[in-house]
Amino acid sequence: KAACFTSEKFKTYLESLGIQLELNIAYQPECNGLRSRRSVTTGSSPSELMFGRKLRLWKDNDEEGIPGQVARMIELGNIAGVRRTKEKKKISNEYTSNLKAGETVLLLNGVLRKKGIRNKMLPRYEGPYKIIEQEKNNVFIIESKIGNRQTVHASRLIRYFSRAAVLNSLGREESKEEIHPLNNSTLQSVEHHYQGISPFGVLEFFLYSKSLNKLSDKMRNASRENPLVLDNNLSDALPLKRCSHSALEKYLMSLETWKVLNSLV
Predict the structure, then answer these.
(1) Which domain holds residue 196?
(2) pTM over 0.90
(3) Is the same domain home to 108 and 86?
(4) How far apart are CA 246 and CA 179, in angstroms?
(5) In whole angstroms, what is the distance from residue 23 CA to residue 1 CA?
(6) What would the pLDDT profile of 170-228 be if each residue is shown by its tens digit?
(7) End-to-end alpha-carbon separation of the chain, Å?
(8) Are residues 83 and 120 in the same domain?
(9) Is residue 204 part of a domain?
(10) How far, in Å, CA of 219 to CA of 206, rounded?
(11) Domain boundary among 169, 202, 222
(12) Residue 1, number of CB atoms within 10 A of its CB
């Protein structure tokens, strides 16, 4: 599927030579069965199954003779048949797809494995795509919304149901609001919650000093949400505390709190 093989210039060049170009389907090794190396399903190379023996070089000695070769051919045929039967039970992709042209589908991401996922947060499927044409051997030509076409196997496709279609089947209407609306009250609370750090701000560090006593129980019982803040000049440290404006101003008005803040400066 490289651009050097799918370009129009390369196709024109092959047509001028009378060569028919056939591309393999991406991420589908089952469609590229003709190969010279050992097959995982049969356990033997195609030439070994065809001729009933391993191809030998001139230096290899052949002492088995004709009877040995015939027995070996029968043995290889039996082994290949048994292995094919076992592999067919394991492979879940060999099925007759019920997808048709014109339907909307999702495409399995080719970067991810079919039986696993690298990252839990990554989407396993892309799309939606529209099926343009169905070819033999469960192969489909799909098209994206921007017009890009791909040739994929049915094992990488699942039927797509839009939200509007599902709601219509249930007799409900799709909401025109956003999925996660941020109304004015939520926005105001967020702005009030996250303001800049100042003596009268929402966030303040209240730390224990070596020479001063602990703060009042009411101050120390404030909510602790952030990690500890350590300082070499302090004997102990408290997490970041969150107080409202009114409560913080009330504490700062007391003389004891002002002394603590002045000692920390």
Answers:
(1) 188-264
(2) no
(3) no
(4) 35
(5) 7
(6) 777 666 555 444 444 444 444 444 444 444 443 344 444 333 444 444 444 444 443 44
(7) 67
(8) no
(9) yes
(10) 9
(11) 169
(12) 11
